Amino acid sequence: MSATLFGSQLYGKLVPTGEVARLFTDSAEIRAMLIVLGALAKAEGAAGIIPEISAKAIHRASLELQVDPGGLAEATGANGVPVPALVAAFRDLMQAPEHAQYIHWGATSQDIMDTGLMLRLRQVLSHYEAGLDRVLTRLADLAEAHAELPMAARTYGQQATPTSFGAVVASWGWPLLDLRAETAGLRDRLCVSLSGAAGTASMLGPDPEALRAELSEALGLVDPKRSWHTDRAPVTKIAGWVARLVTAMGKIGEDLTALAATEVAEVTLGEAGASSTMPQKQNPVAPSVLSMLAHHGAGLQTTLMQAARHRHQRDGATWFTEWMVLPQLCLTGAAAIETCAPLLDGLAPRPEAMARNMSGALAAEALSFALAREMPRPEAQNAMKALARESAETGTDLIALAAERHPRIAPVDFAPPRLLGTAPAEARDFARAVRMQA
């Protein structure tokens, strides 16, 4: 088995990551760091920190030159960071030592790596937003179309009272809608890092704050107005958001796995997985993947938060841990979106199965309140518990049994469509909220 499913030729289609995968390659990281080095030189040239002619040459070269990741591997292994080897390779490729000497002037490896990471995370967010919009549109359509389709609500795995399929879909969608609304705020955490060797910006010219602001504007990132070498909030904020995303989609997976069970069969999933030996099997593969990704994301998030405690002004072990975990977490979020969208496209309720699975027992709560109009509430509850036991033992419909013992009860008043409460409104409210946010 491959070390990671995401890059596996065998398992990769099980956890598709779309365009996000290419943002976590060696080539993508080097390209992002070259962009940062070029923009830094241009800003330093404009500020008179380095010769402007050299700044222009470095900036132009940063957009044109290609650096082989393999050529940096040995030095990266020795140094623990790729920037020294990248800068050396950049200087060699420029073939203009009089200009190349000013590459990476006054910055530190973490400035270049963290800022390059922010550039890539900005693209990740864009892909997430597009995927979430697709998921939310489909959920809104399902919620609206089935706002009044009755089905059994279940608590503790037991049938409780009637709800509607549309309301169930809305319960999946509301957390995702909240997450989508937060993406603009996440961009406010995508900030430049430019603080120098120990976070003091001592070699970044007479006005390092102005230089940082200029670099931020050039790269389209936020100026944090401080050093954040050891404050990993710009990273952990996004990581926490991704963890919540996969948790919300894992909820969809859990519910669909249960609703597609043979004994329940209240939904069809479109495409399902086959067994190697049992022809009748229609395995809920995509819902199971969503559940798995939620488990994986929770573990990654925990590890990342443990790695957010840097000792002193920079800590190798915690930073290395972030490199191990953050790309995996971002790919986990991408895989959840890429899995959820087509799953929802093929999802359909089975009204006949929903009706078949609902019994008069779903009206027990409503019946107890009806009896409370004739007797004290505690007595009404005890009477309904006794009728529920009798119904279960004899197989008699609970509504019919209650009407027989209490003639004032009209069975038609306790049919599932009469007991949906706010479920239809919640489904329609969700659909409306999605369309208003679009």
Can you put this structure into words, describing what you see?
With 438 residues, the chain is mainly alpha-helical. The chain folds into three domains: 85 residues, Fumarase/aspartase (N-terminal domain) (Fumarase C, Chain B, domain 1), CATH 1.10.275.10; 267 residues, Fumarase C, Chain A, domain 2 (Up-down Bundle), CATH 1.20.200.10; 62 residues. It contains 17 helices and four strands. The strands form two sheets. The chain has a two-stranded antiparallel ribbon. Strands 3-4 form a two-stranded antiparallel ribbon. A hairpin with a 2-residue loop joins β1 and β2. It comes from Roseivivax halotolerans. This is 3-carboxy-cis,cis-muconate cycloisomerase.
One letter per element, helices H and strands E, the order comes to HHHHHHEEHHHHEHHEHHHHH
Instruction: State the major sheet.
Output: 2 strands, antiparallel
Which topology of the largest domain does CATH recognise?
Answer: Fumarase C, Chain A, domain 2
- Rg (CA only): 29 Å
List strands and helices in order, with pairings.
Layout: H1 26-46, H2 52-64, H3 73-79, H4 83-94, H5 97-100, H6 109-145, E1 150-155, E2 158-164, H7 165-181, H8 183-187, H9 208-219, H10 233-259, E3 267-268, H11 285-306, H12 316-346, E4 348-349, H13 351-357, H14 364-371, H15 377-394, H16 398-405, H17 423-437
Antiparallel strand pairs: 1-2, 3-4
